[in-house]
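User: Teach me something about this protein's shape.
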Amino acid sequence: MSWWRARSRRTWVGRGLTAGYLLSVTAAVAVLVVIGDLFLAVWLAVIEVASVLSIVWVTRRAEPSPEQARRTTRLGTPNDPGMPSGRR
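Assistant: First, the predicted structure itself:
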């Protein structure tokens, strides 16, 4: 079960969001099927699958190395001369 072990907090947050989203939309699809609106239920199910796949893809990306994370710092820091609020 090594796939279940979280590498980081971001992984657990992603899994939680995916599980919550999956359960809520599955309940909505079930309600639509019970009501009898099959077209809307199928359409919502397709969107649900696409959304879950995109969430899984985003959460499974490798985290940047510390060197790469340092290079992609926030814009607009006080020492950034390219920003209007930056000190020169």
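Now, about its shape. The helical segments are 9-35, 38-60, 66-71. The CA atoms of residues 13 and 37 lie 33 Å apart. If you'd like, I can walk through any region in more detail.
User: That's plenty for now, thanks!
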